[in-house]
Specification:
Layout (H helix, E strand, L loop, with lengths): L4 H7 L1 H14 L8 H16 L7 H15 L3 H18 L6 H45 L3 H15 L4 E7 L5 E8 L6 E2 L5 H4 L7 E3 L21 E9 L2 E10 L7 H54 L3 E6 L4 E4 L1 H7 L3 H4 L4 H4 L5 H16 L9 E7 L2 E11 L5 E10 L1 H36 L8 H31 L8 E3 L1 H18 L3 E6 L6 E3 L1 H17 L6 E9 L2 E8 L6 H4 L12 H5 L6 H11 L3 E7 L3 E9 L4 H6 L11 E5 L3 H13 L3 E5 L5 H8 L3 E4 L8 H10 L8 E5 L6 H5 L3 E4 L4 H12 L3 E6 L3 H13 L2 E6 L2 H11 L3 E5 L7 H10 L8 E5 L5 H11 L3 E4 L4 H12 L9
Parallel strand pairs: 13-15, 19-20, 19-21, 21-22, 22-23, 24-25, 24-26, 26-27, 27-28
Antiparallel strand pairs: 1-2, 1-6, 2-3, 4-5, 5-6, 7-8, 7-11, 9-10, 10-11, 12-14, 15-16, 16-18, 17-18
The chain binds adenosine-5'-diphosphate.
Adenosine-5'-diphosphate (ADP) binds next to helix 17 and helix 20.
């Protein structure tokens, strides 16, 4: 029987395993392993030998070696030792008679299979090594430069060589056109492609799938691949470049050989892809950062230049500039401000605004601080535009202009104060005025001599004069008069400017002054065949004024009217009472004033270019002086004119307010309560009838039939209205009326006469509000009473919102006030001066001059400062702060909108309270 190795191996397996195990257990990879693992290594190698003889054990050895290396960490030399030990063990155990060659084939196959396996591994490792080197090289290229195109070209060259391709191209997406354009190519002859034609997964930023074609053109690629192909191309591999999830381009390599791109190539290509994409992404980020850094650098340089410019301007500016931030701290001071405020920038920096104006005298300092507080605390919507004031310290005079600093969006940043030292200008002005005054005085003496001697000569005091001499002397006299008038005008102006103008206020009847002036100028008018008339309407109260000055004003106005009205024209002077003032209109039918000249004629030395004006002698100073004098009286002067038709010059002169009268005046009633009417009537039946009529109208009625009891009763009870019969048995109704009207406590209580006596006007002159002749229908009686009661006081409502005005007017009427309405600050000032209301309700947000400015003006003006003001606003952010600020400015109180009529009444009541209560005397 033939000896069979396999059979022998089966029979001696346990023997082989027993003797070989020791070898394995001693090897370093196995020494730490349990015996069964060492045995499994050994016996699995024996299994390889026992494999079907027909098959080579090559595959078995490969698997065995791969497993032992992978799972147990065995090294190639350890595995060789094991195979050698197995072959030795077999050789030792095989019977000597067996031909060694018979077993050698099998056993040697183990060793050669292993050697083959290792050789393959070495080869694969070498490829991997070269690929890693290529990758490393590519990574190095990519990292070496941030110059994108240079870096990409060199990288592509590395890729092409690492993958053993001959052609390569790198495409990038153009952001604007969305075209995929070759950025760099090697032996490539392709064109642009629209990004939209590429696989949608790529466009969406997915890196897969790769396109691998190894047998062109047999593989018949899709249509979008066509632009990449060239006739010689046989293999093509392409993939998208994706950076930060965005599709940025395409990498393609190609070869003229078939089947070039195996799995190794694909793996390497993938690794390269992501490296390139990341680098392009980084380069893009770098480009963006660089661009931004450059842009920022440019901006910074620009800002530095601007700030240097601004700094230079601020430094060289002659006016002082101080900026306070929104908290009121000083944050910027220029050298001029340091000089004016007499403090260094270090001292001022960060200082509170309270200390900023410390050098100025108390009055100015307080005014500046108050203005600053208004600006710092006003809600943005109500921010005043600016405050202007004159500040003084020692002998210096500084104009200050405080205004808010706002951003373009309207955010409040703080307050800028401009300070201008005008000491020199003021001094120069004063010196000029003094010079004019001195010169004018000095000129008067020679003028007196010239005029006096000319008069003497003219009068023939030194002998007879011929006609020509007389004419010459007349010219001298006329010009001497002109010169004297001019000197007088100049003197007047300089006196007012230097504060030395004489102003001697005494009670004056304007009617008398007008009569004087008209009489004095009648001759001039007559010479021009003009009709000069005057009218004084009603009994005008006395003004407190300087008669000479008023005479001068009217002489100028009437004189001008005569001069600038052609022959045969008309001049009319009309004086009449208006609320709290006397108004005088000087109307002529003369040449009129053009709209261009109208705004200038009150300026000094201004004369219109009209031929009639130019022909007439004049200095252009008359109206300027008239304006000064009218303003010295607290009045106003203005003109309305139409060219070619005539002009009307108007002066408004306020009537005096008697202090004691003011304080003793009854405060207006403002109770929405039942009002009391006193009926003075001796006929009990009639008294009863009136009582019923009035009570039905909602009034409370008291009756008195006894004349002498009326005044004491009224003093004591202070009814809201008195209905007075003139025919009483014990006393004349007119006497009662006189007594009521001359008593300060009762004078303001409205009286309606209700009698059978016909109206002869006497009672009206005593101050009644209505005259009713009995019998009176109930409706007429109630209408009259209602009207009388609404005349108890005037309230000026200053608001530009029609709805608010309507509501407030109705509410005011209801509580017995007569509402007057002004829509803006300027109108409010004018109406307050004219009508002297008992109370002002003032909205802070007004067009033109706003509420704050109006309050400031009203409280500065002697004529209006005692009138209580209730400020209202819908824009207060902090009501308490706002109230404080307004009270500091002089307002009686502040009421935020919306408010109820009840709240308003409370405020009005307390605003009017300070007026002392009258005491009966
Ligand atoms: P004068 O009359 O000396 O020129 P005024 O100051 O009195 O100076 O007047 C200034 C200017 O106003 C006059 O020159 C004239 O142009 C114009 N003016 C004044 N009053 C009248 C008037 N009643 N009609 C037309 N223009 C007048």
């Amino acid at each position: 029987m033939r000896w069979d190795f396999i059979t022998w191996l089966h029979e001696h397996r346990s023997e082989i395993e027993a003797s070989g195990l020791a070898v394995v257990q001693d090897l370093p990879a196995y020494v730490v392993r349990p015996a069964d693992e060492c045995l499994s290594c050994w016996s699995s190698l024996v299994d390889v030998l026992l494999m079907d003889q027909a098959r080579t054990p090559v595959e078995g050895v490969r698997q065995w070696a791969a497993r032992e290396m992978q799972e147990r960490g065995a090294t190639p030399s350890e595995l060789l030792t094991i195979t050698e030990a197995l072959s030795r063990t077999i050789h030792d155990l095989v019977p000597p008679k067996v031909d060694a060659a018979r077993i050698n084939g099998c056993v040697n196959a183990l060793g050669s299979a292993l050697a083959h396996y290792f050789a393959e591994r070495v080869e694969r490792l070498a490829v991997e090594k070269s690929q890693l080197e290529a990758l490393y090289e590519i990574a190095r290229e990519l990292a070496a430069s941030l110059d994108l195109s240079r870096m990409l070209h060199r990288t592509l060259a590395e890729v092409v060589s690492a993958i053993s391709a001959e052609m390569g191209a790198l495409f990038l997406v153009d952001r604007e056109t969305r075209e995929v354009i070759p950025e760099t190519v090697i032996n490539w002859d392709g064109g642009d492609m629209a990004a939209a034609t590429l696989p949608s997964a790529w466009q969406m930023g997915q890196a897969e799938p790769l396109l691998v074609l190894n047998d062109l053109p047999a593989e018949q690629p899709e249509a979008w691949v066509q632009p990449l192909l060239t006739p010689s191309m046989r293999s093509l591999m392409a993939a998208p470049l994706v950076a930060n999830g965005e599709f940025i381009g395409l990498l393609a390599v190609a070869s003229c050989r078939r089947g070039v791109f195996d799995s190794n190539c694909v793996r390497l290509f993938r690794a390269i892809l992501s490296q390139i994409a990341t680098s392009i992404g980084n380069a893009e980020v770098y480009r963006l950062i660089t661009e931004q850094a450059q842009e920022l650098g440019r901006l910074l340089r620009h800002q530095q230049e601007e700030s240097t410019k601004s700094q230079a301007i601020l430094t060289s500016i002659g006016d002082g500039v101080v900026v306070n931030n929104a908290e009121g701290r000083t944050i910027l001071v220029n050298p001029a401000a340091e000089r004016i405020l007499d403090k260094s920038a270090e001292e001022l920096d960060g200082q509170d605004y309270q200390g900023l104006f410390s050098v100025f005298n108390t009055e100015g300092r307080q005014e500046a601080i108050a203005a600053m507080e208004v600006l710092l605390n006003a809600p943005p919507a109500d921010l005043p535009k600016a405050f202007k004031m004159t500040l003084e310290f020692e002998r210096r005079i500084v104009y200050a202009h405080l205004s808010p600093v706002l951003t373009q969006r309207g955010d409040f940043l703080g307050v800028v104060t401009i300070l201008r030292d005008v000491t020199k200008e003021v001094e120069a002005d004063r010196t000029k005025s003094e010079f004019v005054s001195t010169v004018s005085h000095e000129l008067r003496t020679p003028m007196t001599a010239i005029k006096g001697y000319a008069d003497l000569l003219h009068a023939g005091a030194v002998g007879p004069i011929n006609e020509e001499q007389e004419r010459f002397l007349s010219i001298i006299q006329h010009n001497a008069d002109r010169l004297t008038a001019l000197i007088n005008d100049l003197l007047d102006i300089s006196r007012v400017e230097t504060g030395r103008a004489r102003f001697d206020p005494r009670p004056v009847q304007v009617g008398d002054v007008i009569a004087d002036v008209v009489n004095a100028l009648a001759g001039q008018a007559k010479a021009k065949q003009q009709k000069l008339t005057y009218e004084v309407v009603g009994g005008l109260s006395d003004l407190m004024g300087d008669r000479d000055r008023l005479n001068q004003v009217l002489t100028n106005l009437v004189g001008n009217a005569i001069r600038y009205t052609p022959k045969g024209g008309e001049i009319e002077v009309r004086a009449y009472p208006v609320e709290g003032a006397v108004r005088v209109d000087v109307r002529d039918t003369g040449i009129g004033i053009s709209s261009d000249d109208l705004g200038c004629i009150f300026e000094r030395f201004y004369r219109a270019s009209h031929p009639m004006v130019q022909e007439a002698s004049g200095s252009g100073l008359g109206l300027a002086i008239a304006k000064m004098f009218v303003e010295m009286h607290g009045g106003r002067v203005w003109v309305e004119s139409e060219e070619g038709k005539g002009s009307t010059f108007t002066i408004l002169l306020p009537l005096p307010v008697h202090k004691e009268q003011e304080s003793l005046r009854l405060p207006p009633r403002l109770i929405a309560r039942t009002r009391t009417v006193l009926v003075v009537e001796d006929e009990p039946d009639i008294a009863k009838l009136i009582k019923i009529q009035l009570e039905n109208g909602g009034y409370q009625v008291c009756s008195l039939g006894n004349g002498p009891a009326v005044v004491p009763w009224v003093e004591d009870k202070k009814p809201d209205l008195i209905m007075l019969d003139l025919l009483l048995p014990d006393m004349s109704g007119l006497d009662i009326l006189r007594a009521l009207k001359s008593n300060l406590v009762t004078a303001d209580i409205p009286v309606i006469v209700m009698t059978i006596v016909p109206d002869d006007g006497v009672a009206w002159n005593l101050g009644i509000v209505d005259y009713l002749t009995k019998p009176v229908p109930t409706a007429d009686l109630l209408r009259s009473v209602e009207k009388a009661l609404t005349w108890q006081g005037r309230v000026l409502i200053v608001d530009d919102d029609e709805d608010t005005v309507g509501l407030l007017s109705a509410a005011m009427r209801q509580i017995g006030f007569t509402p007057l309405v002004a829509a803006n600050g300027y109108e409010a000032l004018a109406m307050t001066r004219r009508h002297r209301p008992d109370l002002i309700i003032l909205d802070l947000r007004l067009p033109g001059m706003d509420g704050y400015e109006a309050v400031t003006h009203l409280k500065r003006d002697g004529v209006t400062q005692t009138i209580p003001i209730i400020a209202i606003s819908a824009h207060a952010v902090n009501v308490d702060q706002e109230r404080k600020r307004l009270v500091a400015l002089g307002a009686a109180s502040f009421l935020p909108k919306p408010f109820s009529i009840g709240e308003l009444l409370d405020e009005i009541e307390s605003a009017l309270k300070p007026a002392p209560r009258p005491t009966s005397s």
